[in-house]
Specification:
Blueprint (H helix, E strand, L loop, with lengths): L1 H6 L6 H18 L10 H13 L1 H4 L1 H4 L6 E5 L7 H7 L4 E5 L3 H14 L4 E4 L13 E7 L4 H8 L3 E11 L4 H8 L4 E11 L3 E10 L24
Parallel strand pairs: 1-2, 1-4, 2-3, 4-5
Antiparallel strand pairs: 5-7, 6-7
Length: 233
């Protein structure tokens, strides 16, 4: 597993591997109370949750080179991905996990406390309700929460003028890309394609505010079960 991470330029320390295992144990316990994710076996968890969460920020130059001191929001955080692994990768960022389902938000708060994560907090809201973050976020992440256009409309109001919205996608269709590019008030970059070991394909799409129009928020539709790219939450 170390070799797989290293191939992406990621070199977790022994303390990092311990953190990921403790996070997995938290998710296992959370699954006893609610449906968080079915991907809980060690290899699946590390590849399809942890590595999948980190890869865009390791291989996409515009994300890899981001500085410390940023304010980040993870929209529809669910079981905590990508937000919690990103907290470990970038301890200089302050990351707010946005989760409108209160049971899941409570799980996230418990997990942050148990793992001693100092640069994360939880807000039990979706993007359009997160007023403390409006216009302030340098980075917004969205993984398995909906189509590009829907998420962009909902999350655009969170972004600072130079901020970036990071869409984690599996198989992304030309139609979805076209609809995303038509959202008023954003410019779109990508898709940036990469492989997720052992045999999955992933894409990253970036949305940035243009400053011309601030699109009104609308609620993104959370993906249920498997996403288009075959990834389960």
């Amino acid at each position: 597993m170390r070799e797989v991470f290293a191939a992406a330029g990621l070199t977790p320390s022994d303390a990092d591997w311990e953190f990921y295992e403790r996070l997995r144990q938290c998710v296992l316990r959370g699954n006893e109370r609610m449906n968080l994710t079915r991907l809980v076996e060690p290899a699946d968890f590390l590849l399809k949750h942890v590595l999948d969460s980190l890869l865009p920020f390791a291989i996409v130059p515009a994300l890899r080179d981001l500085p410390d001191g940023l304010l980040v929001a993870d929209v529809g955080s669910g079981a905590g991905f990508p937000g919690l692994p990103l907290c470990r990768l970038r301890p200089g960022w302050t990351i707010t996990l946005l989760e409108r389902t209160r049971k899941k938000a409570a799980f996230l708060a418990e997990t942050i406390e148990e793992l001693g994560i100092r640069n994360a907090r939880v807000l039990a809201a979706d993007a359009r309700e997160a007023k403390p973050l409006f216009g302030r976020c340098d980075v917004v992440t969205a993984r398995a929460v909906g189509e590009i256009a829907d998420v962009a409309r909902a999350a655009l109001g969170l972004l600072a003028p130079a901020g970036v919205l990071v869409h984690y996608k599996g198989n992304v269709s030309g139609k979805e890309l076209e609809e995303g590019a038509r959202v008023k008030g954003i410019s779109q970059e990508g898709p940036f394609l990469h492989d997720l070991p052992p045999d999955a394909k992933r894409a990253v799409v970036l949305s940035r505010p243009t400053g011309r129009t601030r699109a009104g928020p609308s609620r993104p539709t959370r993906a249920r079960g498997r996403t288009r790219g075959g990834r389960g939450r």
